[in-house]
Design brief:
binds adenosine-5'-triphosphate; P-loop_NTPase; 8 helices; 6-stranded mixed sheet; alpha/beta; about 220 residues; Metal_Ion_Import_ABC; Rossmann fold; nucleotide-binding; 10 strands
Length: about 220
Amino acid sequence: MPELFIDSVNHWFGEREILSSVYINCKIGEVTGLLGRNGCGKSTLLKIIFGSIKPNFKYLNINDKVYKKGYQSKNLSYLPQEDLVPDQIKVSIAIDLLCPKNRAALLKIDLISKYLNTKFHELSGGERRFIECLLMIYSDNQYVLLDEPFSQLSPLFVEELKSHINQVKISKGFIITDHYYKSILGISDRIVLLHNRCNYAIKNEGELVLHGYLPGFTA
Ligand SMILES: Nc1ncnc2c1ncn2[C@@H]1O[C@H](COP(=O)(O)OP(=O)(O)OP(=O)(O)O)[C@@H](O)[C@H]1O
């Protein structure tokens, strides 16, 4: 099955080791949920996969080909925590640039058709985030990295976004991180926790307590 995986990720910021022998993957048809405490290195890991941070070491493989930077595969979309599209670009132009093959599907979405001729800086923070997430979900690429897609969104937008991810995931692989952990648990086929610089495969919510991500009861 086609797959993106990154192995043996090692990264230091100055004297501090952030990631140590980290592995994460996603297959086509799958959502991998990435959880972890503030500052544990989730965004750094996504940036390393995309290629905007050069780590001390990593092995990145996308569809059986090795890459130095994920974006060089021309098959990887990445939503950073920050704004994605420049302020002065209109929604319609962003669709042409990022999702030409899926324009028709995007035009069926109410908020997109409403704001087609609107510039990104004229949208509210949540509207902008929602549309930027959709641009990545419906991008022409097979693999999609989403860094905190839900955090600025009202509950209805969160549900709508989850439904779009479910609709397209048959032909795509996602790695998604967010602190709306219930949404991540709900939408993911697998959960990876970053903790103490390492990755852990998580089988249930109890293990998130065990590893200190969720608060738990002590005897
Ligand atoms: N450019 C940088 N230079 C030095 N340290 C950095 C840099 N970027 C991030 N860090 C540090 O690396 C650690 C991991 O940061 P990162 O943004 O990857 O965490 P995160 O898991 O995404 O956190 P959050 O959930 O709060 O968004 C943090 O302690 C942060 O202070």
